[in-house]
Structure formats: C-alpha cells, structure tokens
C-alpha cells in the first residue's frame, strides 16, 4: 500500500498536470493541426506570398491584424467580425477604422484552407500563421507558430478603443499598456520593431512633424512635403513608418529612431532618454538580437488569452459567427 507521502505526491502531481492542462496557453501547440490539416501551412503561405508580390505593404497590414486581434480580449479573431445592424464589432473602433486592412486577403486564405480541411482551422490561428509568413517573406525571421486557438463569438468595440494604445502615447503609457497584456519592456520594444514595415496616415503624425523638437530636421522637411499642416488636408496621405525602408523587415527602424527619425510620437518615445534607449541601441547594432527578441515577443503576444477547449468556435467565415 502506498505510504501517505507518496500518495499525496501523486495527488500533487495530478493536480499540477491538471493545472497545466487548464492553463491559458498550455494547450497551444505547434503540432495542433499536424494530422487534421497537413496542407495548412503551404496553403496559407502561397497566398500571403502572392498578395505581397502584388503589393508589398500588404505584408505589413497582415502583421498588424494579429496585433490588433491579440490586444483586444486575446487572440481570438474578434477583429475580423463585420458589423451588422444587430452586432457591433471592432472594425469601426478608433484604432481600426480607415486603418486596418487585409480583410479580403484573410477571406481568400480562409476559403482556401476550408477547401483543404473544412471546419478545422480557426481564424484566430490563421492570423498567427499569416503574421509569421508576412514577416518571413518581407525578410524577417521565421519561427514555429503555436496553434489551437478558437474563434470568439463576441467582439468589443469599447475594448478595441481602450486596449490598443494611441500613437500619442508617451513611454510610460506604452509600458503600462504592454504590462497589462502580460508583456515586458523588451516585448514592447521588440514588437514595436514591426514598424520596420508599413505606412501611417498624416493624421497620425502631423502633430509630431510640425510641433516636436526631438526630430531630425531633414526627415521633418521630407515628411512635411506630403503631409500638410492644416488639419483635414491630406489626412490620409501616407508615409513609411521606417524612413526609406518600409517594405523590408530589418533593423533600420531602430537606426532611424537613434537619428530622431521616428514617424509617430509613440515611435520616438522609445528613444527619448528613457528606460528603453538601451534596447533601441542593441537592436540598431544587431539585427540578429532584434530578430531573436522579436520572435520571442510574437510568441508571447500570441499567448494572450486564447480560447481553447470548448470555448468559442471554429468560424466557417471569418467575418461572422457560425
Ligand atoms: C503599442 C504601440 C503601437 C502603436 C501606438 C502603434 C500605432 C500605429 C499607427 C498609428 C499606425 C498607422 C495607422 C494609420 O495611420 O492608419 C501603425 C501601423 C502599423 N503598426 Fe503599429 N502601433 C503599435 C504597435 C504595433 C505592434 C506591436 C505591431 C505588430 C507586432 C504593429 C504593427 C504595425 C504595422 C505593420 C503597421 C503598418 C500597417 C500598414 O501599413 O497597413 N504596431 N501602428
Ligand atoms: C469607439 O470609438 C469610436 C471612434 O472614435 C466611437 O465612434 C465609438 O462610439 C467608440 N465606441 C465605444 C463603445 O466606446
């Protein structure tokens, strides 16, 4: 007969395992669709590749979709749901409206994946795979994506308004926003390196280029030429977030921050005499270090509050609940 001590050890071991299995992200696995959808990754990648070949910016737009999903009640595909007369989703929330793009590409990928393994792969997981592929195709690192997230049957415009920091944020606000999502300062700076690709609208950087002092003057002159000072004029004119290198995933974003060429107020906050300066220097100096930390941070972000088990559903169409 087992002694009491080994008996309670067994109970403890069981309890630990149960805790692990019940934990928020413990059920995600890089092998999740290994048997149920073996063609998943090549199916996704070929479409991401073709869309980026058509328009390089699309890679950036797709990467951003994953961020704007994960920061709003977790990585659950909630930002893909369309508004209807009886349902308010996240697409018209302040950080998303007239800004998030790539939904048609996600639809195209979802229907191709439904063609090879119907009813199996969530939209939330597709966003994670698509983000990884986009980064890799634009010249960045690759990694194994943890999978097994299910799709939300709800969305929250209020949470979308409140959970994604605005570009007017100062460093403390950025740090605490990421902390609220369980992400460190290192995660913040590494993830922010996503701004090595993509574009922003004049309305989001006008105040910075006309009113701020911690800005390179020739960069300001160039950027002003396509962003008039008057509110309402040219609001949607675009500029690259990474000056002169907005279609390749590299570490020049950090080099530009050190030269005071951050486009958004919040970008330059990362290198403005505060606690994140040393990370900016490290990433500007070593693309390898940036890539390594970016991968780790993307995995951390992808672990935010996934729906697993019998929570949520596998949406058939990413735009609406089943
Ligand atoms: C927390 C701080 C962040 C702020 C304040 C911020 C803000 C912004 C803003 C204002 C834009 C331009 C939107 C527009 O003008 O329409 C933008 C674009 C973008 N953001 Fe962020 N962002 C942040 C973090 C991130 C993270 C963590 C990622 C991804 C991991 C990301 C990826 C992108 C990409 C790729 C674009 C370009 C999208 C495109 O060209 O379509 N951002 N961001
Ligand atoms: C979210 O922001 C949008 C755009 O600023 C606004 O129209 C909407 O009322 C806000 N929604 C909530 C629920 O706060």
UniProtKB/TrEMBL annotation:
GO terms for molecular function: heme binding; lactoperoxidase activity; metal ion binding. It catalyses: 2 a phenolic donor + H2O2 = 2 a phenolic radical donor + 2 H2O. Heme b binds at residue 195. Its cofactor is heme b; Ca(2+). Its EC number is 1.11.1.7. PANTHER family: PEROXIDASE 52, PEROXIDASE 72-RELATED. Belongs to the peroxidase family. Classical plant (class III) peroxidase subfamily. This is Peroxidase. The lineage of its organism: Eukaryota, Viridiplantae, Streptophyta, Embryophyta, Tracheophyta. The gene is LOC115743684.
